[in-house]
Amino acid sequence: MLRGGLAQYGYWAWGLGLVTVLRLVLAAYIPLAPDEAYYRIWALAPAGGYLDHPPMVAVWARVGMFLVGDTPLGVRLMGPLSACLGTVLVVQAAFCWLRTQLAPEQARTGAIRAGVLLNGTLGVGLGTLVMTPDTPLLLCVTLMLWGLVHACLGRQNWMWLVVGLAAGLGFESKYTMLLPLGGLVVWLLATKAGRAWLCTPWPFMGACVAAVCVVPVVWWNAQHGWVSFFKQGGRLGDWNPTRALGFMGELLGGQVGLASPLVFLFFAGGVWLLWRQRDSFSVLLLCMIMLPVAVFVQHALGARVQANWPVMLYPALALAAAWVLWPWWKVAGFLGLGLTGIVCVQAAFMPLRLSPHLDVTLRQVGGWPAFARAVSAQVPQGFPLVADEYGLASELAFYAPERVVAGVEARWALFALPRPACGAQAYLVLSHRRQGPPDTRFFEVLDVLPEQVRARRGVVADTYSIFHVRLRCAVPGLMRDAALLSGGAR
Asked: Do 342 and 464 reside in the same domain of the chain?
């Protein structure tokens, strides 16, 4: 807990509470995005792992659904709450670090600066409003940094167990947790202070805790041909130097945008100060930041680095930015919060009538409830809905709970859900934007229904064709294995 309690942080603590409440309200109001609806399916089919990611995002969605129901707020509940807790941990960690060299009041101001800048990023503001694997990952990275501050600066040896717990749970959230953890290992091996810790049992005890935490995902992969490890690890071999310059530009531009421009400058200034100071803990943070950055740069030589991947570095960058004494840090933080608010208002109320090419909120969350109801009303009772896009199938399962929805794609075979028989009749829903006509190798078309549009306030996000089909056993993921998704009781 913050030294002296939260009271000494005055209106900043109240501001964090207000931001958290606003995030919860928006989480309840904005429709689920396709990936969120997909992770909800994971929560309905608990497992030690999944094709795309480890299982922690499903655990968090399941906890939220248990607490407040199978609703958008239930799926997302843990996001705003974890952002609040993570901010408290960052502020406390920054204060414990800064007070080793600054007066208490200066340390307190720097700690608040770290918390404001962290929440001023779009990556955290939007990323913790929606439920993705980055949501629990961010909290785990923050918890690991908090434990390292207390272990390395506070000499609380048992905090290495917290570090190990955070590392293990972070790996259960997303495999990229290995990158900052790799930076920690480099620091332990390459620096005098790190090697001194290796002469004690505490880092090894923390490693044992981490190893216990990762058993579920390793066991699940061992039972499923290591599919998740191969899927994510397969990205390492990408190589396309002819497009490297464009990918590098996207990487830099994406981070300027997701951090928000002014906060990005503070992050860059913080990294520079870490290099200037080069005390033991500064070097540790540098290793945990620069090793992932090097990996992302290497990856950009051959493929696109998704803008959300480096967001896991933001807690460490916020700690570094706590040292940056530029007077306009409040402007930077509030500008980032304002940009986040604009995106959220557009997602919830669509004051700007933009085309789907310009409005990512329309593409992601626009019109799903009405669209699913319209499709369900058009299809005769007793027949399942079918989609071969995981996001479309998941949205239909959530917003048409009276229907059974079948996902016919290879990944659905990995779910422990009921299976339909080959030859079953169903109604196939295909997006015009992403799909062509039904593949006759997999679907026997019996009839065609009128098209349906997914729109918000009259602006069409996508158009969908609906086909009455008979499923062939050659459908990917079917072969008596296509997973049935039910909307569930809400």
From this structure: no
